[in-house]
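for the recovery benchmark. tokens below, seq after
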């Protein structure tokens, strides 16, 4: 297998912070790239709050995911939380107001929903690297990632019904797809916590490793993806989304078809003919079976 496909290094990357414009430095997150691979790492950096997100955290996450999407050197994004106590403990309850989570502008928001969709539609794999708690809205975040690598100390669960909230979007529907209707109802109705081993058995995670091996394993998975065809991986993600996402999934998949078609001679002929002021000649393109 290795003779044909090669092997991947298990060396930990050197993470290089990506500088942000003056005055726009990230406060609640870290955005780094591997010095040697096409891996970006986005880290919620509020360990004193178990990496709970507030509106500022969420707007910074949105910016970082956009940067990773637009960076043609980046092929895989690792999403994680600072420290070993938590991946993310969900919305910051200290700033929860009457209409969502309140930031400096005093407006209540549920803008984490935008991040969920952003991860879902990002045309590159996003891997959740989970140590400690992934609970509440933090649990939904790991579920919307393409893959989850968990440390043995990881703890998973929804807390909403205990703290007077719920995520009836991806939080419920995606969970039912992952673990089935009965288990999803158990997780939401009882709001219990589950160990990494239990999560593994339920199909909530891809792999569980000792805490000290978490980053190494996640990087190996990232490198294995990176050596594969970016377009094939992109279309597989898009297809897996399309089958579940209705019009939005079709629109995403169709965007990929257009991207490929634009690059074809047939697609170029239409544009070239228009710019040259002549009728397009599509006669040389075969009507394939
Ligand atoms: C994570 C837990 C289990 C960790 O327990 P542990 O290790 O004993 O630590 P603590 O001492 O409890 O915590 C350390 C410090 O961190 C603070 N903290 C922890 N979590 C939060 C949080 N979510 N918000 C604010 N602060 C938090 C603690 O207060 C403590 O601070 P100090 O040291 O000052 O005392 C445990 O901490 C825990 O259970 N946390 C709460 C988990 C939770 O209920 N999260 C919120 C669930 N709801 C959401 O996430 C909302 C999601 C959402 O935005 C949404 C989006 C769309 C649609 C619907 C929703 C929706 O509302 O659900």
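predicted aa per position
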């Amino acid at each position: 297998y290795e003779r044909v496909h090669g092997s991947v290094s298990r060396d930990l990357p050197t993470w290089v912070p990506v500088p942000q414009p003056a005055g726009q430095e990230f406060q609640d997150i870290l955005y780094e790239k591997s010095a040697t691979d096409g891996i970006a790492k986005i880290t919620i950096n509020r360990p004193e709050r178990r990496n709970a997100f507030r509106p500022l955290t969420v707007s910074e996450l949105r910016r970082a995911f956009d940067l990773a999407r637009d960076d043609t050197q980046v092929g895989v994004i690792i999403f994680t939380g600072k420290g070993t106590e938590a991946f993310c403990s969900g919305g910051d309850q200290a700033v929860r107001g009457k209409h969502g989570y309140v930031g400096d502008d005093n407006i209540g928001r549920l803008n984490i929903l935008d991040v969920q969709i952003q991860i879902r539609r990002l045309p590159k794999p996003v891997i959740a690297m989970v140590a400690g708690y992934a609970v509440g809205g933090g649990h939904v975040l790991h579920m919307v990632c393409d893959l989850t690598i968990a440390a043995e100390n990881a703890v998973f669960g929804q807390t909403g019904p205990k703290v007077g909230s719920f995520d009836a979007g991806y939080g419920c529907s995606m969970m039912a797809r992952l673990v089935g209707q009965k288990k999803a109802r158990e997780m939401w109705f009882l709001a219990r916590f589950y160990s990494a081993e239990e999560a593994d058995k339920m199909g909530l995670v891809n792999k569980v490793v000792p805490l000290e091996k978490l980053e190494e394993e996640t990087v190996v998975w990232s490198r294995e993806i990176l050596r594969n065809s970016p377009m094939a991986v992109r279309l597989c993600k898009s297809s897996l989304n399309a089958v579940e996402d209705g019009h939005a999934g079709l629109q995403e998949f169709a965007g990929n078809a257009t991207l490929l078609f634009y690059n074809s001679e047939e697609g170029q002929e239409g544009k070239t003919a228009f710019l040259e002021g002549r009728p397009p000649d599509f006669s040389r393109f075969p009507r394939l079976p």
